[in-house]
Amino acid sequence: MNDQEKFIRDELVFQLMRGNAHSPFEAIVEDFPIAHINDKFPNGVYTFWHLLEHIRRTQADILDFCINPNYKEIEWPNDYWPARDEKATKKDWDHTIEQFLEDRETFKKVTLDPKVDIYKKIAGGSGQTVFREVFVVADHNAYHLGEFSIMRQTLKTWGKNHE
């Protein structure tokens, strides 16, 4: 792998893991009060957990699309969101976070793997590449993590030490 290719892959991973314009996932969910995981924001239709679970499901689906030659498309929006009346337990919350982090780490490994041609069209797709899909995931995650942060601010679920 030449220096330019390494730079590109490292930048993709940086955007996936942290980005320049938003807080990382870990900081946004840190110290979240479990008593509020099923709270909806004013005039909202989904809860904190619904939103995190949506981020997780979307990332998992795109990862599967990138690495599974037998990928089966899932149904929008039903398979990307929990049911509106579904309530999460602490176990569900923890699972969502753990699985998100695990899938993101797999995406990182795929992106950094020199054996993966990140510019090659994904089999079964319509022209997508791993390069493009990493950007889609990073963008989608950043958008909704910003939303999650605003929900926390609105519903006063940030801790005392949050800036």
Largest sheet, described in full?
Answer: none
Strand composition percent: under 5%
Number of strands: 0
* Helical stretch tally: 5
Low-confidence stretches: none
Give the integer mean of the pLDDT values: 96
Please state the structural category. mainly alpha
Order of helices and strands: HHHHH
Radius of gyration: 17 Å
- Classify the helix fraction into a percent range: 40-55%
Shape: globular
End-to-end C-alpha gap:
40 Å
Structure, described:
With 163 residues, this protein is mostly helical. Helix content is 54%, strand content 0%. The protein contains five helices and no strands. The protein has helices spanning 3-17, 25-29, 48-67, 90-112, 130-154. The longest helix has 25 residues, at 130-154.
What would you say about this model in short?
The protein has helices spanning 3-17, 25-29, 48-67, 90-112, 130-154. The chain is mostly helical. The model has no long low-confidence stretch (mean pLDDT 96).
